[in-house]
Amino acid sequence: MKILAILTLCFIVKCNSYKILAIFPHNGRSHHIFFTTLIEELAKRKHDVTVINYHSVPSLPNLRQISLQDKEDEVDQVNIEEHLKILAKSDFAIAYEEAYACQYLANMNCKKLMNNREVQELIASRTHFDVVLVEQFVTDCGLAVAYKLNAPAIGMTSHILLPWTYARLGAPNNPAFVQNHFFASGTYPNMWNKIKSAIINFAMNTYYWHVTQRIDTEIVNEVYPGTPHLEELGKNMSLILINQYFPLTGPRLYSSNVVEIGGMHVKDNVQIEDKSLQKFLDNANKDVVYVSFGSVASNVSRKISNEIKKVIEKNSNLLFVWKTDVTDWVPPSNVFLGKWMPQTAIICHPKVVAFVTHSGMLSTTEAMHCGIPIVAIPLFGEQYSNAQSAVESGLGVSLDVLTLNQVVLEDALNTVLQEKYQKKAKELSRLWKDRPLSPMDTTIFWIEYVARNKGAVNMKPPTVDMPLYQYLMLDAILVVGSVILLIIFILVKLVSLVTSKKSPPQKNVKKANKRKHQ
After folding, report:
1. 212 and 288 fall within a common domain
2. Strand-pair category, 239-242 with 319-323
3. How many domains are there within the chain?
4. Which residues cross the membrane (predicted)?
5. Are both 340 and 443 inside the same structural domain?
6. Using CA atoms, how far apart are residues 236 and 347, in angstroms rounded to an integer?
7. Which helix (H) or strand (E) holds 22?
8. Tens-place pLDDT, residues 109-149
9. What is the CA angle 290-293-299, rounded to 5?
10. Do residues 368 and 428 make contact, with C-beta atoms less than 8 angstroms apart?
């Protein structure tokens, strides 16, 4: 009987196990953290997983890695000193810089992916995969790999949707109510922000489709001639899994092909391995503030660092944990410094009451999960939108990095330390966690759903392939408008005809008047 049960269990595991290929062709550390959490969980659930990425993954028996890492890889950090010079310009200039940077990353990542020997061998082997996970960031070349392997594709993001992704999903990106990715337009933008958002979206999308995407398609076709345009492959994705969730980012108008999995990477009960850090937090007799600008912006400018130092030195009534590379400073006793921190474990610690952050999506969703209000200091990318979402949801406040100083930062900290923000953060955390399935279980369900149905279920709305004039109903408006104008024209003619028949001719009237006078 026991043998039968074991055989039955093995059969069930086999039936529910799929061959999954995951392609994450960007070398950003924060992206890696988000996606690797999923890869590890898929492997633990007995799926046969192959991942193409840059950074190392856990060693598991059913997990294979194809590394894109090479000696020429650039550091995935942003030079904040230089970036602050760009921020001093207009939002339009910033958007142009972002578009150019995205193009550079896209074309570089595409070349490395398509020219990788192991990737080419994988495609040549015609290995069967039940589903392919493809990062939706700046390059779609991973979709070409899925196409060559004849496997259904699922898109994934570690952030909110980029402006050029909406169209392929058939989702509205209306600047009247959809936050702009590259500046804090807000969910209820004023007239100028609507106009600015519309111009930036149009320019960014045009540049992406006609420059970035065109070059990437050429790169793919140099290796695999006859591959369709990458934008067409993007429209054929089964669905997309996005790292956002409505308690933070607000309700959005999406179809069934868009699934929110905000906070998928967050693990509960993460332990702090650094004993000195654990002791610092456990023995804290004052409120603790955590300060971190993420993995990409960890080398913050001297200006920002100096202002943070002043706040720490002046506020001895608070304790600070600061993830930083600062070395030219003798820190006071109320701060713990470290180059790398177990962030979720820290901000979920009961002694931690506030989080000073660059408002990257991973950091912001972790704050939501732990119920900690934030002081957001966005620096680039979608961080402005994330910070605005935090403000609108009540999770925290947002500061302009260009006007940041000790007084401004202290005022912001005092604001989020108020009972109003502390209670609101706990309430948002409760709403964030109140879901039918955990973010991880939701993610894996939909991956298995597509694999189980071989990508055959059509979840795309008709708006994906609908011409703009039909989407805006311009054809229907033209027809109805023409009919209305025709009816009005006919009525005017009829009225004119009737009134002209009732009125006697002018000459006869004159003759009748003459006879009367005679």
Report:
1. no
2. unpaired
3. 3
4. 468-492
5. no
6. 40
7. strand 19-23
8. 999 999 999 999 999 999 999 999 999 999 999 999 999 99
9. 125
10. yes
Same domain, 204 and 60: yes
> Is there a single domain that holds both residue 443 and residue 500?
no
Check whether residue 254 and residue 281 sit in a common domain: no
> For residue 268, what pLDDT is reported?
85
- CA pair distance 382, 121, nearest whole angstrom: 36
In angstroms, the CA 200 to CA 204 distance is: 6
Residue with the bigger pLDDT between 298 and 358: it is 358
Range of the domain at 405: 275-433
Helical ranges in 51-154 per DSSP H: 80-87, 91-114, 117-124, 141-148
Which residues make beta-bridge pairs with 320?
289, 335
Closest CA to 412 of 381, 441, 429, 390: 390
Model confidence over 28-60: pLDDT tens digits?
Answer: 888 999 999 999 999 999 999 999 999 989 899
Kindly tell me if the per-residue pLDDT of 250 is higher than 70.
yes
Residue with tokens 């030195």: 313
C-alpha 223/C-alpha 326 separation (Å) is 45
Residue 238 maps to which CATH number? 3.40.50.2000
**SS3 breakdown of the chain: % helix, strand, coil, rounded to 5?**
50, 10, 35
Residue 11 belongs to some domain of the structure: no
The DSSP code sequence of 192-254 is HHHHHHHHHHHHHHHHIIIIIHHHHHHHHHHHSTTPPPHHHHHHT-SEEEES--HHHH-----
